[in-house]
Amino acid sequence: MPSGVARTGVGWPALGALLKDAGVRDGRLHDARHIAATVLLILGVPYVVVGAITGWEPPKTN
After folding, report:
1. d(Cα 4, Cα 43) in Å, to the nearest integer?
2. 27, 18 contact by CB (below 8 A)
3. Is 52 left (phi over 0), alpha (psi -120 to 50) or beta?
4. 3-state SS record for the chain
C-alpha cells in the first residue's frame, strides 16, 4: 500500500472498531474525505468553504 494511505484497520484501530460495530465496511480515510467533500458540495456549501475544510488548494486561474 502506498505511503500515506491508511486503511481504517491499520494505524487506526479505534476507528476500525467503530466502523465494524456500526456495520460499515473497511475503507480508506482518504475515501471518506472525498465523500464528505462531495456531500457538502451537493448540499450547496460554497467551494471555498469545502476547500478550507478539506485543505484543498484554491483553484488556479490563468
Report:
1. 29
2. no
3. alpha
4. CCCCCCECCCCCHHHHHHHHHHCCCCCEHHHHHHHHHHHHHHCCCCHHHHHHHHCCCCCCCC
Confirm whether pTM is higher than 0.85. no
Looking up cell 481504517 gives 8
Residue 33: closest CA among 8, 60, 13: 8
Residue 8: pLDDT band with limits 50, 70, 90 = very low
Q: How many of the other CB atoms lie within 10 Å of CB of 2?
A: 4
**How many CA atoms, within 13 angstroms, populate the side-chain half-sphere of residue 29?**
14
